[in-house]
Amino acid sequence: MFEIGNSLREARLRQHLEFPEIEQATKIRGKYLRALEDEQFDVLPAQTYVKGFLRSYAEYLGLDGQLYVDEYNSRFVVGEEDAPARPRRSAPPPSRGAQVQSRVVLLTLLGIAAVTAIVIVAWTWGEPQKKEPVGLGTTPAQTPGAVAKPPVATNGVRLIVTAMRGNCWLEVHSGSATGRIIFQGTLERGQRHVFTGRKLWITLDRPENLRTILNGRTRVLSGGGVKTLIVTARGIRPGV
Hints:
The chain is of the alpha+beta class. It has helices at residues 4-14, 19-26, 30-37, 47-60, 65-76, 96-126; strands at residues 157-163, 168-174, 180-187, 192-197, 200-204, 210-214, 217-219, 227-232, 235-238. The protein is elongated, with a radius of gyration of 29 Å.
């Protein structure tokens, strides 16, 4: 068990990210991002949105979105089972006095129901048209189990590199093979680094040890020794 909100907040602060930037990239309103970090899940409209937003936010930060959804389900989603109906015992037929009294009670209840219906109709006609919840106008309705995927950037690169299986040496240039070096060194197992730019030129020795997430989508790198990769918003391809 781990704290969902604190884990998200720490990941965001490590990457020096602010809510406006994340809101623009994920299309999730800042008030909902704060609610996820504060574990105030009742602020969101429904559990479906909580799970979708939680997965999208975690994966944008380079985390395992399914792990956060599972933790939310185990701590906050409680199933309810309907109690089995019990057979009723047959009752003796009511007396004539009881029948009269029952009719009076029935008429009284019908009168109350009629008055209640009139009040509800009057309230409905006088109530202004309900508006869609703020922040949900651009989000399509999701059925239970649906997963909201983070949007893919079209004009830049956001590459999250994590050493999952072992160490990996990296040299990252901006723009081209002779461009400015933005990172050079060994990424040890368990460490992660985020690279951004228009185009990245990467040389590495153990690609099979890395897990990469390019603009919110996981990319698989094949092994085979030292490689040179060119990373753009369209994808990752071998360098010449």
